[in-house]
Amino acid sequence: MKTLPAGIALMLVLQVSAQESWPPLDNSPMDMVYYPVDYPILKIRKQAPEAPVIKIVYSRPVKKNRKIFGELVEYGKVWRLGANEATEIDCYKDIKIGNIKIKKGKYTMYAIPEADKWTIIINKDNDVWGSFAYDQQKDILRTTVKTQKTDAPVEMFSMLFKKTTSGANLLMAWEDTEVALPISF
Known about the structure:
By secondary structure, the protein is mainly beta. It has a domain at 27-144. Helices cover 12% and strands 44% of the residues. The protein contains two helices and ten strands, in the order αβαβββββββββ. The strands form three sheets. Strands 1-2-3-6-7-8 form a six-stranded antiparallel sheet, with no helix packed on it. Strands 4-5 form a two-stranded antiparallel sheet. A two-stranded antiparallel ribbon has the order 9-10. The longest helix has 17 residues, at 3-19.
């Protein structure tokens, strides 16, 4: 007799679970990079050399045998620096890019790629999908960085920080193209 209520409860759980409609897995998974590199892991191990300076959240599109720059990502047009939502940069303290001071806070990053250079844009609009609603009037920085060829093809758009004497370079690479954005702090 005790198994009857347990059986009914199990059927209700299965029925509720069957009714859920989970979205399919995203082809361009979201990722994030920190400076210092691997900050959250180092923090839980109590090995973080310093407090976090920057976190970037972005989606990582895949090349999938496509021509990326100049075709999928058009030259001369604003690009969200990844896929899906526009890339977000969270500055935990004031930083400098070139001669421009970026105050502590959360911003959106875009790029305008060209074959030989990218214009990197920091914009004060947040929680934006793609670059469809991009508003140049909300830019707080535009700077140009030169492109270089990668040693090997990069299948997924990727970002990472590389420490420098004055801060870090934000490296961004996809297909056979790489750029480095110098950041000081």
